[in-house]
Design goal:
Length: 398
């Protein structure tokens, strides 16, 4: 396995213990999640943004600040997703520029492909990857499909545990990619509990913050925003569930400051449904860790995570970067997603609609000063949940 020059291994941010393996699931000293670390002085802006010699690298063009060299990548050219200008929405919100980062264009139609590509690449470096079998993940849908696709490239046996209310498209494609699907009655928390209950053998977890690579892949979003805009945006609205994407994109923005490319970072706004908002509630209450949401009830299944594995990390990221969080009603999220589909061509998923609704709410609260460059993150394509979007329209008589 060819590692990149700046990568210095996995380190525990809680106790600073170093791991001697690329495959550790947690700190051997204190049990906390591990983080990839880098010698930032060994990576310049020119190296990070150096154009690849050949096309088709996707987000692996930024391997200078990833653990593994792009020549090792298990990849389907994920990343380099379009940053689509939305001038009419910018005028409506009263901002200078507004863009939609459309992660629905990734290979399996979701932002999670970035992290799963890194996970699969790490596993490919094991002396005998089959020793890690079985691999397992609990998912609201998208990450399970992504995991099956990327782990399938290694020929490894994997299981995705999904709640019964997950989108049919996710369930179908988990099997199509060769993964084993286990449908669990109830919600995401029930699926997460079922992993230990139903797998009799030890397994290798592909869960966020069990593997250190999923949120590491998400940081390339920040690099692409800088590359596409020629600088950083002012505000980024991120639909938030497990905390994985908030943590990852925050790490990316911070990396740009550490290599001296910028002195400031954008305001990250984590957006959650009103009826399942453990991270947003913790921000409002100024808590360091989120409390599990007692009665989650949102139609946006991708965001219905009552006890986020990366909640503490996401809150730490928001504090360090002066970010914040807010909540939006499901009806506003679906309104936003369908409005964008009508006006900007983009097929935005319900989760991306939540981020867009967050931007509208920000405008209604007069929190824009009018000169901002704003980015809305669309984490998956509308084709993942067309029934939800269509039912919303029908409910409005449209």
């Amino acid at each position: 396995m060819k590692l990149t020059p700046a990568f210095r291994g996995l380190v525990c941010p809680a106790c600073t213990a170093e791991s001697d393996s690329l495959f550790d699931q947690q700190c051997q000293s204190c049990g906390a999640p591990l983080e990839p670390t880098y010698a930032y002085e060994d990576c310049s802006a020119s190296v990070l943004f150096e154009p690849p010699e050949t096309g088709g690298c996707g987000h692996w063009r930024f391997d200078a600040l990833l653990p593994f060299d792009r020549s090792e990548a298990i990849s389907a050219a994920e990343g380099e997703t379009p940053l689509c200008g939305a001038d009419r929405l910018a005028d409506e919100l009263g901002v200078s520029e507004l863009y939609i980062k459309d992660e629905g264009r990734n290979p399996t139609g979701t932002v999670y492909d970035r992290g799963m590509s890194l996970v699969a690449t790490a596993l490919s470096g094991h002396d005998d990857p089959s020793d890690l079998e079985p691999l397992a993940v609990a998912s609201t849908g998208n990450s399970g499909q992504s995991a099956s696709a990327y782990v399938g490239q290694l020929g490894l046996r994997s299981y995705a545990f999904v709640p019964s209310r997950s989108a049919f498209s996710n369930k179908a494609m988990i099997n199509v990619h060769g993964g084993q699907m286990r449908v669990v009655g109830g919600r995401y928390g029930d699926a997460a509990s079922a992993v230990d209950e139903q797998l009799a053998a030890d397994y290798y977890s592909l869960q966020e913050f069990a593997t250190p690579y999923r949120h590491e892949g998400a940081k390339t979003l920040a690099f692409e925003l800088y590359s596409d805009l020629g600088g950083l945006p002012d505000v980024v609205f991120v639909p938030t569930s497990t905390g994985e994407i908030v943590t990852g994109i925050g790490r990316g923005f911070e990396a740009l400051t550490k290599i001296g490319l910028t002195e400031s970072t954008p305001t990250i706004v984590a957006v959650q449904p009103t009826s399942c908002a453990p991270i947003a509630a913790a921000v409002e209450q100024e808590r360091e860790t989120p409390e599990p949401w007692t009665h989650p009830d949102t139609i946006i299944g991708e965001l219905e995570v009552a006890d986020p594995a990366g909640g503490t990390q996401a809150l730490e990221t928001l504090r360090r970067l002066d970010g914040t969080a807010l909540t939006v009603d499901d009806s506003d999220s679906l309104d936003a997603a369908t409005t964008i589909a009508h006006n900007e061509i983009i097929e935005m998923g319900p989760a991306g609609g939540a981020a867009a609704a967050g931007a509208w709410q920000w405008a209604e609260d007069d929190r824009f000063d009018g000169n901002e460059t704003v980015v809305i993150l669309n984490t998956d394509g509308g084709v993942k949940s067309p029934d939800i979007l269509r039912s919303h329209l029908m409910g409005q008589g449209r």
